[in-house]
Design goal:
Layout (H helix, E strand, L loop, with lengths): L1 H18 L7 E7 L3 H13 L4 E7 L1 H10 L2 H4 L4 H12 L3 E6 L11 H23 L5 E5 L3 H7 L5 H15 L7 H21 L2 E7 L4 E5 L7 E2 L2 E2 L5 E2 L8 E3 L6 E6 L4 E3 L2 E3 L3 E5 L2 E6 L4 H8 L8 E6 L5 H4 L7 H4 L5 E5 L14 H6 L8 E5 L6 E6 L4 E6 L2 E2 L8
Parallel strand pairs: 1-2, 1-3, 3-4
Antiparallel strand pairs: 5-6, 5-19, 6-11, 7-10, 8-9, 10-16, 11-14, 12-13, 14-15, 16-17, 17-18, 19-20, 20-21
Length: about 425
């Protein structure tokens, strides 16, 4: 137990120092489940020790959310809450560093009517849209991390007793986030440099499109002009670096929203807002999803894709090798933060503006003109597999193999 507390303390300090990179005088907004109060207290203390002006804890409670969706009047559930809107505006005015800790049951909303879940999600998306736009433009620092929730641990380890499952999941989180290393911060700095090297290499190449192919996927994705590959760290509008996701194993950019064609099969379940959607298959024509099928969660998927016109286009493509600590665990985490870092993934919905040169200074109309997608949502789904290959094509149709058997082509960084 004492060893666990020591590791939890180190984890909190890593989240604050590397994830959010909290600076003196900043406001910190911490979103966390009530179940994780011990970690919340440690993160709060660590933030104040680094000089934070204030730490605002936005407590989350799955049971309360379930009750609201199940029983609240439809009119109330679909009305934009002015108090919540004012709260979001306050965070934006303060450029608050945002720390989100994920730990909830991935199927917490299963069994509730899909139309009520969709109505709730759409209202919440409207409230949070200014926050998400600012986040995607990196106007402030932000990081998403995880904690071992009881119900989430049961999904990952259904055959273990609850307390054993939670302990096992915490051990994995600590290992995957390098807390088990002698110097976790130094380990993250080295890892970030390795990811940055791949992003730099792809940014140096005059790429036009990528071709993904495996036993279940045959998809071509065009890249926009002035694309920008990113990996590991990001930089906010004040020039301060932060780590958006911990763990992270990806480098990513945005596709040309009009140039996506073919079929792609999801290789892991998607856990989104308390619903698990599995076995998804998408067909794209001229950038738009023209068919979407799943054997598990079709109604939830249909509601997601109907959020707005942008929900039917891709906003992100990310490259993740199979030889990562998460993938090697052989587990499905039913948590996008972990599962997306175990496999190549795509996202339908909004693109990150920094995925093209000068994108963060553009308004939506300019981003669309530059072929980037805009939407109220951004939903990642995993497509990587051990047999996946990816070929890049340059603007003069030169082929550059970048992935084979689910991993980076050896020597890629020293070629081309």
């Amino acid at each position: 137990m004492s060893h666990f507390k020591q590791q939890l303390q180190q984890y909190a300090e890593l989240i604050v120092a590397v994830g959010g990179n909290v600076q003196p005088g900043q406001t910190v907004m911490l979103q966390i489940e009530v179940e994780q109060s011990e970690l919340a207290h440690l993160i709060t203390t660590a933030a104040y020790q680094r000089g934070a002006a204030e730490v605002i804890v936005n407590w989350q409670d799955t049971a309360t959310q379930q009750a609201f969706i199940a029983h609240a009047a439809t009119e109330r559930m679909t009305t934009v809450d002015q108090v919540a809107t004012a709260q979001v505006n306050d965070w934006l005015d303060k450029a608050a560093t945002r720390i989100v800790v994920m730990s909830a049951d991935p199927s917490s909303l299963s069994g509730l009517p899909a139309e009520r879940i969709a109505a709730y999600q759409q209202t919440q998306a409207q409230i949070k849209q200014p926050l998400m736009q600012a986040l995607q433009a990196n106007r402030f620092s932000w990081t998403v991390v995880a904690a071992a929730g009881l119900d989430w641990a049961h999904h990952v380890f259904p055959d273990l007793p609850p307390n054993v499952a939670v302990t096992k999941l915490w051990q994995l989180i600590f290992k995957i986030t390098r807390i088990d290393q002698p110097d976790p911060i130094a380990a993250w700095q080295q890892h970030a440099a390795e990811l940055k090297a791949y992003a730099t290499k792809l940014n140096q190449l005059p790429l036009d499109r990528l071709h993904y192919y495996s036993a279940k996927t045959d998809l071509t994705i065009g890249l926009p002009k002035n694309y920008n590959w990113s990996g590991a760290t990001s930089e906010n509008s004040h020039g301060q670096t932060f780590m958006p996701n911990m763990p992270t194993e990806e480098i990513f950019t945005a596709p040309d929203r009009h140039r996506v064609d073919g079929t792609v099969t999801a290789t892991k379940p998607l856990s989104y807002a308390g619903t698990i959607i599995d076995d998804m298959v998408f067909t794209f024509t001229n950038g738009r999803i023209t068919a979407a099928h799943t054997d598990h969660g079709q109604s939830a998927l249909d509601h997601l894709l109907a959020t707005d016109a942008g929900a039917q286009h891709l906003g992100e493509l990310a490259l993740v090798p199979e030889a990562t600590p998460i993938a090697r665990s052989g587990l499905i985490f039913y948590n996008t933060l972990f599962d997306e870092n175990a496999a190549n993934h795509l996202a339908f919905g909004s693109a990150y503006p920094f995925s093209i040169k000068d994108g963060t200074s553009m308004i939506d109309a300019q981003l669309k003109a530059a072929a980037l997608n805009t939407s109220q949502l951004h939903v990642d789904f995993m497509v990587g597999a051990p047999d996946m290959a990816i070929d890049a094509y340059t603007k003069d149709d030169r082929l550059i193999p970048i992935f084979r058997n689910g991993n980076w082509v050896p020597g890629l960084l020293d070629q081309y």
